[in-house]
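Hey,
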Amino acid sequence: MTDANTWLIRIHTAPYISPRAALGLDATLACGAFGQAVKLVLEGPAIELLKPLPAAPEGGRNLHKMIASLPLYDVDRVYLLSEDLTTIPDTTFDELQITLVNSGELANLITNSRHVLSF
């Protein structure tokens, strides 16, 4: 059974190529800010969000810092859709858990979420 306040945010676009990854993070932060239960799944090129940048792109936001701020919005876990363990980058997040999921586990996350947004 799904909870009316459960959101699953799927980001599958590369950061800094289009605004979609940033919009997905904005949606995740907004859900957390308004007390909604939210789960974030990074897929494919979006996994690059976990890698720090030397500096944010000119005129852009540093999306890695937005990922680091997720625990402030009661998001303490990020799911990575990957069948390959080598795709998990080394991270330096203290309060954020990174969990690898396969396509079957993603299907379960989707089934148990009331709202699903893809970016």
